[in-house]
Amino acid sequence: MSLLRSSFVFLLACTGVRARQGTHVEPLFADTQFRQGFLLSYPDSSKGRAVERVLNFDDANNVPVWRLCQWATRYTLASAHCRRDPDSVLSYENEAKRVAVGNSDSPNKGLTLEIRGSTEYGTRARKLGESWPHLLIEQDATRLFALDELDTVRLRIRLRLLYSKNGMSADEYDPGLHAAQFQLFFIVKNIRRGSVDEGNYFWFGVPFYDSRHDIPPAFMAADAGKKDATGKFIYTIPGETSLKSGNWVAVDKDLLPQVLSGLQEATKRGYLKNPDPHDYAVANMNLGWEIPGTFDAAVQVQDLEISATLKTGRDGAAP
Predict the structure, then answer these.
(1) Residue at 275 is within a domain
(2) What sign results for the dihedral spanned by CA atoms 129, 282, 243, 14?
(3) Any idea what the CATH number is for the domain that residue 181 is in?
Protein backbone atom coordinates (compact mmCIF):
# COMPACT_ATOMS: atom_id res chain seq x y z
CA MET A 1 0.00 0.00 0.00
CA SER A 2 1.39 3.41 -1.01
CA LEU A 3 1.93 6.16 1.56
CA LEU A 4 -0.80 8.23 -0.14
CA ARG A 5 -3.27 5.33 -0.06
CA SER A 6 -2.48 4.46 3.56
CA SER A 7 -2.92 8.11 4.57
CA PHE A 8 -6.32 8.19 2.83
CA VAL A 9 -7.50 5.06 4.66
CA PHE A 10 -6.26 6.51 7.97
CA LEU A 11 -8.20 9.74 7.29
CA LEU A 12 -11.38 7.79 6.60
CA ALA A 13 -10.96 5.84 9.81
CA CYS A 14 -10.51 9.03 11.82
CA THR A 15 -13.62 10.64 10.35
CA GLY A 16 -15.75 7.55 10.87
CA VAL A 17 -16.28 6.99 7.11
CA ARG A 18 -15.95 3.34 6.08
CA ALA A 19 -14.61 2.70 2.59
CA ARG A 20 -14.85 -0.44 0.49
CA GLN A 21 -12.05 -1.50 -1.81
CA GLY A 22 -12.23 0.55 -5.02
CA THR A 23 -14.58 3.22 -3.68
CA HIS A 24 -14.05 6.88 -2.89
CA VAL A 25 -16.02 8.06 0.13
CA GLU A 26 -16.34 11.74 1.03
CA PRO A 27 -17.91 13.18 4.21
CA LEU A 28 -20.38 15.86 3.18
CA PHE A 29 -20.42 17.81 6.46
CA ALA A 30 -17.78 18.77 9.03
CA ASP A 31 -17.56 18.58 12.85
CA THR A 32 -20.20 15.90 13.23
CA GLN A 33 -19.18 15.59 16.90
CA PHE A 34 -20.20 19.27 17.39
CA ARG A 35 -17.01 20.08 19.33
CA GLN A 36 -16.34 23.45 17.68
CA GLY A 37 -19.55 25.13 18.81
CA PHE A 38 -22.16 27.10 16.89
CA LEU A 39 -22.85 30.36 15.07
CA LEU A 40 -26.10 31.55 16.63
CA SER A 41 -28.72 32.93 14.24
CA TYR A 42 -31.01 35.82 15.06
CA PRO A 43 -34.60 34.88 15.93
CA ASP A 44 -35.74 36.90 12.90
CA SER A 45 -35.19 34.68 9.84
CA SER A 46 -35.14 37.74 7.55
CA LYS A 47 -31.61 38.41 8.87
CA GLY A 48 -30.48 35.31 7.01
CA ARG A 49 -27.05 34.10 8.02
CA ALA A 50 -26.16 37.08 10.18
CA VAL A 51 -24.62 35.89 13.45
CA GLU A 52 -26.03 37.16 16.73
CA ARG A 53 -23.30 35.49 18.77
CA VAL A 54 -20.58 32.86 18.45
CA LEU A 55 -21.19 30.02 20.91
CA ASN A 56 -17.65 28.60 21.02
CA PHE A 57 -17.79 26.97 24.47
CA ASP A 58 -15.56 29.78 25.77
CA ASP A 59 -12.64 28.49 23.70
CA ALA A 60 -11.23 31.10 21.32
CA ASN A 61 -9.53 28.33 19.31
CA ASN A 62 -12.89 26.86 18.30
CA VAL A 63 -14.06 27.81 14.79
CA PRO A 64 -17.73 26.77 14.46
CA VAL A 65 -19.01 25.42 11.14
CA TRP A 66 -22.57 24.75 12.36
CA ARG A 67 -25.21 27.44 12.52
CA LEU A 68 -27.63 27.15 15.42
CA CYS A 69 -30.98 28.44 14.20
CA GLN A 70 -33.50 29.72 16.75
CA TRP A 71 -36.04 31.23 14.37
CA ALA A 72 -39.22 32.71 15.80
CA THR A 73 -38.10 32.25 19.40
CA ARG A 74 -39.06 34.83 22.02
CA TYR A 75 -35.98 33.93 24.07
CA THR A 76 -32.65 34.23 22.27
CA LEU A 77 -29.63 32.29 23.52
CA ALA A 78 -27.40 35.29 22.82
CA SER A 79 -27.06 36.15 26.52
CA ALA A 80 -26.68 32.56 27.76
CA HIS A 81 -23.47 31.54 29.51
CA CYS A 82 -21.54 28.38 28.72
CA ARG A 83 -22.03 25.84 31.48
CA ARG A 84 -19.53 23.07 32.17
CA ASP A 85 -21.06 20.07 33.88
CA PRO A 86 -19.04 17.47 35.84
CA ASP A 87 -19.90 14.75 33.29
CA SER A 88 -17.98 16.50 30.44
CA VAL A 89 -21.04 18.24 29.00
CA LEU A 90 -20.92 21.82 27.70
CA SER A 91 -24.24 23.61 27.34
CA TYR A 92 -26.07 26.87 26.69
CA GLU A 93 -29.51 27.25 28.24
CA ASN A 94 -32.28 29.73 28.95
CA GLU A 95 -35.90 29.38 29.99
CA ALA A 96 -37.01 28.26 26.50
CA LYS A 97 -34.26 25.98 25.23
CA ARG A 98 -31.09 24.02 25.96
CA VAL A 99 -28.26 22.99 23.63
CA ALA A 100 -25.69 20.59 25.06
CA VAL A 101 -22.65 18.73 23.68
CA GLY A 102 -21.06 15.85 25.57
CA ASN A 103 -17.53 14.59 24.97
CA SER A 104 -16.90 11.02 23.84
CA ASP A 105 -16.13 9.96 27.42
CA SER A 106 -19.40 11.39 28.76
CA PRO A 107 -22.51 9.25 29.39
CA ASN A 108 -24.34 12.10 27.64
CA LYS A 109 -22.05 12.32 24.63
CA GLY A 110 -23.29 13.84 21.39
CA LEU A 111 -25.76 16.66 20.87
CA THR A 112 -28.92 17.32 22.90
CA LEU A 113 -31.52 19.79 21.60
CA GLU A 114 -34.26 20.69 24.06
CA ILE A 115 -37.07 23.17 23.40
CA ARG A 116 -39.84 24.33 25.72
CA GLY A 117 -42.94 25.33 23.84
CA SER A 118 -44.76 25.99 27.12
CA THR A 119 -42.41 28.95 27.65
CA GLU A 120 -42.48 30.10 24.02
CA TYR A 121 -46.29 30.09 23.73
CA GLY A 122 -47.31 30.67 27.33
CA THR A 123 -51.01 30.04 27.85
CA ARG A 124 -52.01 30.72 24.23
CA ALA A 125 -51.85 28.00 21.58
CA ARG A 126 -50.53 28.87 18.12
CA LYS A 127 -53.10 30.03 15.56
CA LEU A 128 -53.26 29.51 11.80
CA GLY A 129 -50.65 31.54 9.89
CA GLU A 130 -48.49 32.32 12.93
CA SER A 131 -44.79 31.40 12.99
CA TRP A 132 -43.44 28.74 15.30
CA PRO A 133 -40.16 28.26 17.18
CA HIS A 134 -37.27 26.30 15.69
CA LEU A 135 -34.16 24.87 17.31
CA LEU A 136 -31.95 23.24 14.74
CA ILE A 137 -28.38 23.02 13.48
CA GLU A 138 -27.52 23.84 9.88
CA GLN A 139 -24.43 23.57 7.66
CA ASP A 140 -23.48 23.90 3.99
CA ALA A 141 -21.91 20.85 2.37
CA THR A 142 -18.12 20.87 2.43
CA ARG A 143 -18.09 19.92 -1.28
CA LEU A 144 -20.70 19.70 -4.01
CA PHE A 145 -21.10 16.43 -5.89
CA ALA A 146 -23.52 16.10 -8.80
CA LEU A 147 -26.07 13.42 -8.01
CA ASP A 148 -25.22 11.40 -11.13
CA GLU A 149 -21.59 11.15 -9.96
CA LEU A 150 -22.60 9.28 -6.81
CA ASP A 151 -23.30 5.66 -5.94
CA THR A 152 -24.72 6.47 -2.49
CA VAL A 153 -25.60 9.25 -0.08
CA ARG A 154 -25.24 7.48 3.24
CA LEU A 155 -26.92 8.67 6.45
CA ARG A 156 -25.86 7.15 9.76
CA ILE A 157 -27.22 8.48 13.04
CA ARG A 158 -28.33 7.34 16.50
CA LEU A 159 -31.13 9.17 18.32
CA ARG A 160 -33.32 8.87 21.36
CA LEU A 161 -36.30 10.90 22.51
CA LEU A 162 -35.63 12.11 26.04
CA TYR A 163 -39.18 13.37 26.50
CA SER A 164 -42.12 15.05 24.76
CA LYS A 165 -45.02 16.67 26.59
CA ASN A 166 -48.14 18.28 25.13
CA GLY A 167 -49.12 21.37 27.13
CA MET A 168 -52.43 22.02 25.36
CA SER A 169 -55.88 21.06 26.50
CA ALA A 170 -58.10 18.84 24.35
CA ASP A 171 -60.12 21.91 23.35
CA GLU A 172 -57.01 23.83 22.24
CA TYR A 173 -55.20 21.04 20.45
CA ASP A 174 -55.62 20.83 16.67
CA PRO A 175 -53.36 18.22 15.00
CA GLY A 176 -53.62 20.20 11.75
CA LEU A 177 -51.88 23.13 13.46
CA HIS A 178 -50.02 21.76 16.46
CA ALA A 179 -47.13 19.30 16.63
CA ALA A 180 -43.56 18.70 17.71
CA GLN A 181 -41.31 17.49 14.90
CA PHE A 182 -37.66 16.42 14.91
CA GLN A 183 -36.29 15.86 11.42
CA LEU A 184 -33.40 16.22 8.99
CA PHE A 185 -33.60 18.19 5.76
CA PHE A 186 -31.29 18.47 2.77
CA ILE A 187 -31.39 21.34 0.32
CA VAL A 188 -30.99 19.64 -3.06
CA LYS A 189 -29.90 22.50 -5.29
CA ASN A 190 -29.29 23.11 -8.99
CA ILE A 191 -25.57 23.94 -9.16
CA ARG A 192 -25.15 24.14 -12.94
CA ARG A 193 -24.33 27.55 -14.42
CA GLY A 194 -26.67 28.41 -17.25
CA SER A 195 -29.25 25.80 -16.30
CA VAL A 196 -32.88 26.86 -16.49
CA ASP A 197 -33.13 26.03 -12.76
CA GLU A 198 -29.76 27.48 -11.69
CA GLY A 199 -29.91 28.17 -7.93
CA ASN A 200 -33.37 26.64 -7.50
CA TYR A 201 -33.84 23.79 -5.04
CA PHE A 202 -36.22 21.50 -3.17
CA TRP A 203 -36.31 20.28 0.43
CA PHE A 204 -35.61 16.56 1.00
CA GLY A 205 -36.77 15.47 4.45
CA VAL A 206 -36.00 12.52 6.73
CA PRO A 207 -38.46 12.51 9.68
CA PHE A 208 -37.45 11.02 13.02
CA TYR A 209 -40.21 12.17 15.37
CA ASP A 210 -43.70 13.61 14.95
CA SER A 211 -45.87 13.92 18.06
CA ARG A 212 -48.97 13.02 16.02
CA HIS A 213 -47.74 9.64 14.79
CA ASP A 214 -45.91 6.58 16.10
CA ILE A 215 -43.92 6.55 12.86
CA PRO A 216 -43.84 9.79 10.84
CA PRO A 217 -45.54 9.52 7.43
CA ALA A 218 -44.35 10.77 4.05
CA PHE A 219 -45.19 14.36 3.18
CA MET A 220 -45.15 16.23 -0.14
CA ALA A 221 -46.24 19.85 -0.49
CA ALA A 222 -45.00 23.41 -0.82
CA ASP A 223 -43.25 24.93 2.18
CA ALA A 224 -46.03 27.11 3.61
CA GLY A 225 -47.97 28.01 6.75
CA LYS A 226 -46.02 31.08 7.90
CA LYS A 227 -44.79 34.41 6.56
CA ASP A 228 -41.17 33.36 6.00
CA ALA A 229 -41.99 30.07 4.24
CA THR A 230 -39.83 29.49 1.16
CA GLY A 231 -42.58 28.16 -1.11
CA LYS A 232 -40.17 25.44 -2.30
CA PHE A 233 -41.25 21.83 -2.71
CA ILE A 234 -40.91 19.58 0.35
CA TYR A 235 -40.34 15.89 -0.34
CA THR A 236 -40.28 14.02 2.98
CA ILE A 237 -39.85 10.26 2.95
CA PRO A 238 -41.73 8.08 5.48
CA GLY A 239 -40.09 7.29 8.78
CA GLU A 240 -39.07 3.72 9.51
CA THR A 241 -38.89 3.49 13.30
CA SER A 242 -40.49 5.13 16.32
CA LEU A 243 -38.65 7.24 18.88
CA LYS A 244 -41.61 7.23 21.26
CA SER A 245 -40.26 4.36 23.39
CA GLY A 246 -37.35 6.52 24.52
CA ASN A 247 -34.88 3.84 23.41
CA TRP A 248 -31.92 4.50 21.18
CA VAL A 249 -32.75 4.15 17.47
CA ALA A 250 -30.04 3.65 14.85
CA VAL A 251 -30.49 4.70 11.22
CA ASP A 252 -28.13 3.50 8.48
CA LYS A 253 -29.57 4.25 5.06
CA ASP A 254 -28.62 5.11 1.49
CA LEU A 255 -30.77 8.14 0.67
CA LEU A 256 -29.68 8.63 -2.95
CA PRO A 257 -32.55 6.68 -4.61
CA GLN A 258 -35.11 8.69 -2.66
CA VAL A 259 -33.32 11.98 -3.35
CA LEU A 260 -33.53 11.16 -7.06
CA SER A 261 -37.23 10.33 -6.67
CA GLY A 262 -37.73 13.68 -4.96
CA LEU A 263 -36.08 15.45 -7.87
CA GLN A 264 -38.40 13.75 -10.33
CA GLU A 265 -41.47 14.55 -8.20
CA ALA A 266 -40.46 18.22 -7.84
CA THR A 267 -40.20 18.43 -11.63
CA LYS A 268 -43.47 16.57 -12.20
CA ARG A 269 -45.30 19.01 -9.93
CA GLY A 270 -43.80 22.06 -11.62
CA TYR A 271 -41.49 23.30 -8.87
CA LEU A 272 -38.45 22.58 -11.08
CA LYS A 273 -38.14 22.56 -14.85
CA ASN A 274 -35.03 20.42 -15.27
CA PRO A 275 -34.84 16.91 -13.72
CA ASP A 276 -31.26 16.09 -14.85
CA PRO A 277 -29.36 14.67 -11.81
CA HIS A 278 -26.12 16.00 -13.31
CA ASP A 279 -27.27 19.52 -12.41
CA TYR A 280 -28.16 18.93 -8.74
CA ALA A 281 -26.24 18.36 -5.51
CA VAL A 282 -26.86 18.03 -1.78
CA ALA A 283 -25.89 21.59 -0.86
CA ASN A 284 -27.02 22.04 2.75
CA MET A 285 -28.53 20.16 5.68
CA ASN A 286 -30.37 20.99 8.88
CA LEU A 287 -31.35 18.82 11.82
CA GLY A 288 -33.57 19.62 14.77
CA TRP A 289 -36.89 20.77 16.15
CA GLU A 290 -39.84 22.61 14.70
CA ILE A 291 -42.53 23.25 17.35
CA PRO A 292 -45.78 24.58 15.88
CA GLY A 293 -47.57 23.46 19.05
CA THR A 294 -47.18 23.91 22.79
CA PHE A 295 -44.80 21.02 23.39
CA ASP A 296 -41.77 20.63 25.63
CA ALA A 297 -39.39 18.10 24.08
CA ALA A 298 -35.77 16.95 23.83
CA VAL A 299 -33.76 14.59 21.59
CA GLN A 300 -30.19 13.35 21.95
CA VAL A 301 -28.12 12.65 18.81
CA GLN A 302 -24.94 10.58 18.49
CA ASP A 303 -22.68 9.21 15.75
CA LEU A 304 -23.92 11.44 12.94
CA GLU A 305 -22.33 10.68 9.59
CA ILE A 306 -23.43 11.86 6.13
CA SER A 307 -21.15 10.76 3.34
CA ALA A 308 -21.13 10.35 -0.43
CA THR A 309 -19.69 7.37 -2.28
CA LEU A 310 -18.39 8.53 -5.63
CA LYS A 311 -18.58 6.48 -8.79
CA THR A 312 -15.26 5.19 -10.05
CA GLY A 313 -13.18 7.96 -11.61
CA ARG A 314 -15.25 10.81 -10.14
CA ASP A 315 -13.73 13.40 -7.83
CA GLY A 316 -16.52 15.92 -7.40
CA ALA A 317 -18.61 18.48 -9.22
CA ALA A 318 -17.87 22.15 -9.70
CA PRO A 319 -20.87 24.43 -10.21
Answers:
(1) no
(2) negative
(3) 2.60.120
